[in-house]
Amino acid sequence: MRWMWIDRIVELQPRERLVAVKHVSLAEEHLHDHFPQRGDRPAFPVMPMSLIVEGMAQSAGILVGHAEEFREKVILAKVGKAEMSREATPGCTLRYTATITHLDSVGASTKGLIELIEPSPTGGGTPEPVGAIDLMFSHLDNNMGGQKFPEWNFVFSESFRTLLRSSGITT
Amino acid sequence: MTRDEIYAKVKDLLVDALAVDDEDVTPTARLTADLGAESIDFLDIVFKLQQTFGIQIPQGELFPENLSQHANLIKDGKVTPEGIAMIKSKLPHVDFSAWEKDPVAKKLAEVFTVETLVRYVERKIAAK
What Rg, from alpha-carbon coordinates, does chain B have? Predict the structure, then answer.
């Protein structure tokens, strides 16, 4: 099972944009270590920024992969920018909007908006922009180094297909 | 678009792509040795040039394709005269004069300067 850092795709405009959500839960073990109680300092559970980058990379990676019907092996090549102005705490929802800014046979670049939805007493909430993550992806089989890779697409494995199905993107 | 306008846009995109300071980007600055570009940054620069100037950059037209795939073009770590002739014909916007005196294959990336990019864009826009 691959580590999945998005729970559902809520919108997909092929070759343009994808919106996904991630619910931050205190049941996730890593939150207990990030950060644990130490001495007089109480525990401070927050979603690690590295995993938020991974969530955006999965969102944008699916968008780029979908553009060529998942024939390409889409690999995260570069994190151009990753900024976040506030923490995502348990009970919050992260909303990732990835937009393609460039796409060709060699790879793609994407812009990403992170919004945070703090739950209201009735469960809803208003998305608040809290950060930006810009990424670049390489289509592995068309890499500039000319290196060869296995034929089967090891990037878009079963966990991605399950996510696409459970989000209603594929049947 | 004037040469100065092209230079200003190239400068901005390099500051963004390579996370360098504005004053570090000079016409003679080498992308690798002076501005710290790594191999994947070359792809990023190609993407950004295409977006900024609305041009198409086929693979191998701005930067050379991987020479190590062609064993006859490199001998004892140096690019052979045939290899030099080939890359010069494919990359007319590049000044190879200093490098070709000692054409070490691994140092080929050092010929690419900010000026190289400006010259390439200038040619592409003129050919439109």
Answer: 15
CA distance linking residue A49 with residue A70, whole number of Å: 27
Tokens representing A102? 């460039």
Listed by start position, the domains of chain B span 1-61+112-128, 64-107
| Predicted local distance difference test score (pLDDT) of residue A145 | 66
Residues of chain B scoring pLDDT < 70? 67-71
Structure tokens at B81: 């005269």
CATH of the domain at A113: 3.10.129.10
pLDDT tens digits, one per residue of A69-90: 999 999 999 999 999 999 999 9
Task: Provide, as residue numbers in chain B, all residues whose Cβ is less than 8 Å from the Cβ of A78.
Answer: 40-41, 44
Q: Which token pair is A123?
A: 């469960």
Element (H, E) at A93: strand A93-103
**Is A39 within 8 Å of chain B by CB?**
no
Half-sphere exposure in the Cβ direction for B53 (13 Å, CA): 32
Name which CATH class applies to B1-61+112-128. mainly alpha
- What residues make up the domain containing A81? 8-31+43-158
Whether B108 and B67 have beta carbons less than 8 Å apart is answered as: yes
Q: How many CB atoms lie within 10 A of CB A9?
A: 22
Q: What is the ipTM of this complex?
A: 0.82
Residues in chain B: 128
The answer to whether B42 contacts chain A (CB < 8 Å) is: yes
